[in-house]
Design goal:
single chain; about 170 residues; alpha/beta; three-stranded antiparallel sheet; about 35% helix; about 25% strand
């Protein structure tokens, strides 16, 4: 399958999102998928549109490229109007499915999912309504199979009152 793993973004959890996305992309490639790692906000430069999902792909180089923007995110947010970086929506439209490796605001609040729903782009995880519902409730669990990828995400309220997030992926 041709898969875009979206990570990065603008939240305070950007760094962990890049780490998660890198691991997800590597696991998908080890399973034989043509997965590419992309920063939803900073985008992907120099996409080879004849073959945007190459057999040979350096996930660590993509991760390092994304991390290179970490100190510039606040400045970039002030200069840009769009949350989606260069070539992101076009790349996602070319994919069989988009694997959401985003964390925090704009990644887990349903906004990306709503955009993909409107554009008809298939993605892993909860649909928009469930994502918004999860943000307002103390406990929710969801699991689904999307294009052969099983994704489950569970939120639990701990005794301390903080949320503990557990997720698992079976490929």
């Amino acid at each position: 399958m041709k898969i875009v793993v979206l990570a990065g973004g603008t939240s305070t959890e950007r760094t962990i999102s890049i780490v998660s996305g890198t691991g997800i992309c590597k696991a998908l490639r080890q399973k034989g998928h043509q997965a590419v790692l992309a920063d939803i906000f900073c985008g992907v430069e120099n996409v080879e549109w004849e073959d945007p999902f190459p057999q040979e792909y350096d996930v660590d180089a993509a991760s390092a490229y994304m991390s290179g923007f970490n100190d510039k995110i606040e400045e970039m947010k002030k200069e840009r109007r769009s949350f989606f970086g260069p070539n992101i929506l076009q790349l996602c439209e070319q994919a069989d499915v988009v694997f959401l490796g985003l964390h925090g605001k704009n990644g887990e609040d349903g906004k990306v999912q709503a955009t993909f729903d409107l554009l008809g782009i298939p993605y892993t995880g909860s649909k928009t309504g469930r994502t918004l519902y999860a943000g307002k409730n103390r406990k929710i669990g969801t699991s689904r199979k999307t294009h052969g990828l099983f994704h489950g995400l569970f939120f639990h309220l701990c005794i301390s009152g903080r949320y503990q997030i557990s997720s698992y992926f079976l490929l």
